[in-house]
Automatic annotation (TrEMBL):
GO terms for biological process: response to hydroperoxide. InterPro entries: YaaA (IPR005583). It comes from the Bacteria. It comes from Mangrovibacterium marinum. It holds the Pfam family H2O2_YaaD. Belongs to the UPF0246 family. Signal peptide: none annotated. HAMAP family: UPF0246. This is UPF0246 protein C8N47_1036.
Length: 255
């Protein structure tokens, strides 16, 4: 069983990681080709491409120009500790024990517009590039076309070795980078809904944090059998059999 999540726009490269262990991204060559394209872009180009402010464009121009392998703990940081958005706040990876982070390294993957597919302990340098960005690379019209064959093939290899079940905790934007028609495995997609005015609805902020909570639940309990996910109870959520169907598993809570 492998769980996949999205990256985060917010980054933390200031605090010290709780472990000295690290690994290298599998697709650093591909990331280098994307970065080569990013290095050509001006601040105005970045504003148009990413829909960001001038201040953020300046920051990311500097990041793009500074990006340079090889990666080491001196110039990069492990992905699971570098990303700092709602999902990662829910996961609280900084509290994992050494055994738990080893389990995460084997069973958790992070999709990325720049790096493709990351293991938790893969070193990364600061960047901002959403998977949905309409940037042509190597003759491909966008990042989806660039990454889809590579990510699908890699996940097929990993799923074959990990029991053939993919737990999709990624956003729709990032999950589109996988060719589900060619994926050789079972995809289970948890959904998290909150009771609002008597109806269960997906509330984006809460759902993102819940994805991180489920990652924490998987890692802390070292879950390898999907059925055991139905016992998930962090943050007040519980498995709702009535709202679930097939491989869409719905977890609800009453605020």
């Amino acid at each position: 069983m492998i769980a996949i999540i999205s990256p985060a726009k917010s980054l933390d490269f200031e605090s010290q990681p709780p472990t000295q262990k690290y690994s290298q991204p599998a697709f650093l060559n591909e990331a280098g080709r994307i970065n080569h394209q990013l290095k050509q872009l001006t601040e105005k180009d970045l504003i148009k491409l990413m829909g960001i402010s001038a201040k953020l464009a300046t920051l990311n121009l500097e990041r793009n120009q500074s990006w340079s392998p090889p990666f080491s703990p001196e110039n990069a940081k492990q992905a699971i500790y570098a990303f700092n958005g709602d999902v990662y706040e829910g996961m609280q990876a900084e509290n994992f024990s050494p055994d738990q982070i080893d389990f995460a390294q084997d069973h958790l993957r992070i999709l990325s517009g720049l790096y493709g597919l990351l293991n938790p302990l893969d070193l990364i340098q600061p960047y901002r590039l959403e998977m949905g960005s309409k940037m042509a690379v190597d003759g491909q019209k966008d990042l989806y076309q660039f990454w889809k064959p590579t990510l699908t093939n890699e996940l097929n290899k990993q799923l074959a070795a990990a029991g053939g079940v993919l737990i999709n905790l990624a956003s729709a934007e990032y999950f589109k980078a996988i060719d589900t028609k060619k994926l050789k495995g079972t995809i289970i997609t948890p959904e998290f809904k909150d009771n609002k005015e008597g109806k269960y609805k997906i509330i984006s902020f809460y759902a993102k944090k819940a994805r991180g909570l489920m990652c924490r639940f998987i890692i802390e309990n070292k879950i390898t059998e999907p059925e055991n996910l139905k016992a998930f109870d962090l943050g007040g959520y519980y498995f709702n059999n009535d709202l679930s169907s097939g491989n869409k598993w719905v977890f609800t809570r009453d605020l």
